[in-house]
Task: structure prediction
Amino acid sequence: MSEPHDERAIDVALTEALHRLPHRPAPARLVRRVERVLAPAPPAPSPGWRWHWPRVLVPTLAAAAAVALATPVVVYQYNAATRAASATMITEAIGDHLRIVQAQRPLEIESGDGHRVRPWFEGRLEFSPVLPFAGDNDVPLRGGALAWFLDRKAAAFVYGLRLHTVTLFVFRPEGLPWPTAGWQRAGAREVYRAGERGYTVILWRAHGLGYALVSDADPREVVQLASRFGGA
Amino acid sequence: MHEELAREALGHVDALYKLARYLTGRETDAEDLVQETYARAVAGAAGFTAGTNLKAWLFRILRNTFISMYRHRRASPEVSGVDITDAAATEEWLRDDMELDRLRKLVAEEIEAALMSLSEDARTVVLLDLEDLSEVEMAAVLECPVGTVKSRLARARAALRRRLRDYAK
Result:
């Protein structure tokens, strides 16, 4: 039988062995995702308006003059904040779309049957995603995958449009930096449309959920497609 | 979350990812688990006590997130409890004079395979022990008394030694 000191030596050897476990640092894509989660929330523009109004209501000529001078600046800052906030969602949508396009295994469920794809998300999300378009011969549904949209989980429904990929992200809408201006009435609802780096992004809200449709197809085709998704 | 705290939290991403990988067994699940951990940490930042161990706090969130989001999907019989098996049967080998040499010859992949063969609870306590957490901090992560941590760790390491026997021969 071994002496007690052998047991201690074995214990040390076991710890040393565990320290030889393969070192696999967090992938860069995960670090970027975490950085986005940790990033301070963009400033909300509305409270700033309310905060400044009492000051400009001082009933003096000097204050009135100050209002006249300050208002364009405040409006400019307000619009800049709005643009920055909406740009965050547009950039995120394109980035998420690219991650799906470039992934070696972009789909976690591969099926053209919406009745198979949508139930796959059950238990994987904190909400039940609505699949607004089940695909057809021109724009077949390829499948779905879990994704992240800014700080929250999202359902990604992936379609084909000839050689293009079209991704529809469905997510909880509350607390996101939605654009506060630039919405267009399209059919029964309002949509926000933006283009960046050759990609078209269309945002809308319906059924208590948020939607982002992304593709590098011709912008007119994407707009037409959005109408079939109920987003225009 | 305060900027300085966020920066410090980001510095623990590798450690969290490591534990997440060994808990989920899948890279994609591990990444989701880590991101969800940070999202919950940001949401609950007010619950962090300044001056305490931030890494331990994040580990606790990760473990609870794993339990709530992933563990229920599994049907594995290994998911609960620490491996409490055949201690008497392997007692002889555990005291084998050759064990020391065998342990020293193990390669990383063998150790990893043996670790993955343990239950999730055993894996967790063994990995936390490598993170330089105190027993009090580990108890906070695992939400159990310090005495329980000690006994769990002892049983988990003994189980790991038994598993490693197969690789060391």
Notes: The radius of gyration of chain B is 17 Å.
